[in-house]
Amino acid sequence: MRIAFLGTPEFALPSLRALIDRGDTLAVFTQPDRPVGRKAILTPPPVKVLAEAHGIPVFQFDRIRSAEGREALESFAPDLMVTAAFGQILSAKNLAIPRLGTINVHGSLLPKYRGASPIQSAIIAGETETGVTTMMTDVGMDTGDMLLKAATPIDPDETYEQLSERLAVIGADLLLKTLEQLENGTLTRTPQDPEAATVCHMLTKEDGRIDPNRPAKRIHDLVRGTNPWPCAYAMLDGSPLKVFETRLTDATFSDVPGTLRERGGKLFLCCEDGALEIVSLQASGKKRMEAGAFLRGCTLDGKILC
Questions:
Q1: What is the three-class DSSP state of 44?
Q2: Residue 104: DSSP 8-state
Q3: Domain membership of residue 146 as a residue range
Q4: Is 216 left (phi over 0), alpha (psi -120 to 50) or beta?
């Protein structure tokens, strides 16, 4: 089968590897190289690196909806398009190109968490289960008919990065099952219930802002869901303090929410309903450190996060 694969980050890699192993004729469409890090080093998307390592042609467009993007897709003449965390919205003209349509590997149990941040949003919301859905892409935002689903529990301390890695592998396996059913004529389509749908937006740095006036569990979920990006943070003495890892605890303090307390070499944040242990953090201009090591270099006891 001739398949145009549209994907960009690490989440898309297992799905692309699965198609490579299947022996399909592939072309990869991905985002342009972007500056990364403080030195703004121009870096290719992970999908591009994998594709080039296997001699697969790669096409990069700022807008796949542009005339150039459509022409490149039409020139490849795919039987099917497969998308996985591509990062761009396809137009009706894009979607009309493959004769078998476009299958998307989406990191949630649709119709919940349609949109750009399904994995992060599920963790931040405190969900205990999520999964992957393969779906037929239409012109809406993840509104197409569902094909197959695979559910998985979310560990109480699992981060966005950890869950994303697991879901990527689950998604690749689900994609293979979807293609098998497509080829043998047993694949069925199930319309989504719009009344049960939820939508999640692309996260910004501000979405990581910690509000100490919330319950400890909600803050813990925010920290997990924004690790490693955009990363949870709060302001300490006018500068951002990033919080990478927290731990729920039975420790209690009588201080107002936002107060930091040190006990036995550990650091705690007072919250609305108790305290949350801060396990690793990073002060402005410093490296990420475990809380114990951080406290050996400074005193935070009694300071206020806001």
A1: coil
A2: E
A3: 2-200
A4: alpha
| CB-based contact 67:87 (threshold 8 Å) | no
- Find the helix or strand (DSSP H, E) in which 276 lies: strand 274-283
Q: Would you say residue 192 has pLDDT above 90?
A: yes
Domain assignment present for 179: yes
CA dist 216 → 35, 186, 256, 294 (Å): 36, 47, 13, 22
185: number of Cβ within 10 Å = 6
Q: 203, 179 in Cβ contact below 8 A?
A: no
β partners of residue 291: none
For residue 38, what pLDDT is reported? 77
The closest of 139, 137, 144 to 192, measured between CA atoms, is 144
Asked if residue 301 is part of any domain, the answer here is no
pTM of full prediction above 0.90: yes
End residue of a domain, out of 200, 219, 248: 200
Q: How far apart are CA 42 and CA 32, in angstroms?
A: 10
> In the structure encoding, which two tokens stand for residue 83, read together?
């998308």
pLDDT at residue 178, rounded to an integer: 98
Residues 6+ apart with CB under 8 A from 25: 1, 2, 3
Total domains present in the chain: 2
Sign of CA dihedral 187, 10, 41, 87: positive
> Rounded distance, CA 92 to CA 73, Å?
13
Element (H, E) at 15: helix 13-22
Residues 33 and 24: their CA atoms lie apart, in Å, by 25
Cα-trace Rg, the chain: 22
The structure tokens 């949870």 sit at: 232
Tokens of 202: 């692309």
Q: 181 and 234, same structural domain? A: no
Tell me the pLDDT tens digit for each residue of 127-161.
999 999 999 999 999 999 999 999 999 999 999 99
* CATH number of domain containing 232: 3.10.25.10
The partner residues of 269 in beta bridges, in order of sequence, read 260, 276
